[in-house]
Amino acid sequence: MIGPEHALLHDQRRAEYVAASDSEALAAALQLSRVEGIIPALESAHAVAEAIPPRARRRGQDVFSSTCPAAATRISTSIARTFPEIDQP
Question: Mean pLDDT across the chain, nearest whole number?
Fold first, then answer.
């Protein structure tokens, strides 16, 4: 369920909402951590999965925006279990 502001943006075709599976999110998290050194939380990794080609369906001037909140103290347990090669701080 989404809130009224997101519903309005969707109805105005100013926002698009998509889904990614957990396996797609984990693969995206691994790629982001290897390429950029950013280890996203599993929730953020779902958004990252949409941003990484070939899944990205951006056209021309379209913009993709997402946030990756910092996991200050530890890596997501799911990500750490799946990718033991990522060192926890």
Answer: 75
